[in-house]
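An instance as discussed:

___
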Amino acid sequence: MIRKINGEFIKLRHLHLFAIVIGIDLLAVTLGALLYFQNKKVFASFHTQWLALWSESGLFYAQIFLPLLLALMVAVVIRCEKEQHNFSRMAVVPLKASQLILRKFSTLALLTAAGVAVFIFAFYCIGFAGRFPINRTIGSFLWWGTLGWIGTFPILGIQFWLSIRLKNFTTPIIFALGLSLANFILLTISQALVRLYPYAQIMIGLHARSYEDLSLLQVILFLGIVTIFCGGSLIFSVATLKRQGFE
């Protein structure tokens, strides 16, 4: 499996996806830092510099930048396979649709993990450069970043299904934009609905709007939503590929 995933990374090399991921992650942190430093005196007076910078950066990242980045990555990967007629070629070799989807999903999940790591690293660099006080909260961001990464799984799965099913390259990305913006609407309606919404799981895991750690029940709900939507969308992706000739 590791060798096959490495092969997928080699195929992605000419697409420059890693550079795009790094660029968007750094852009999100930079925008968050600019917003923070515009109001730094307020945050400094309450000794919440780390949390404020995380929130300012995380809101852009979790609700707009990362969902669109995931949609773009999936759309580019699937489009390349379609343009080169690779799905048709692979349908005649002993490769199951489930294996193909899992391989590509794992590859993009690892690429996303690298991007999240860059986001966290840049966040810490800005905090230390700004001489933020060292306190017990600074270690929490590693855990929150990990949960945020796990929260990307439902979006990756849904975007795989949309990109495989739809012929147009831009349509899945437009769907991702609309579904991401729906976060803001749901926030005004009900927090309970937000916790059940697949495109809000990055925000929940990343703690972009809440500084409190998730309770055990909330963690179970978070992992349950991730599993249901990720697993369900990957099953639909496999079924769609099978209709294209895979077994």
Residues 2-242 form one domain. The CA atoms of residues 121 and 161 lie 32 Å apart. The mean pLDDT is 86. The radius of gyration is 19 Å.
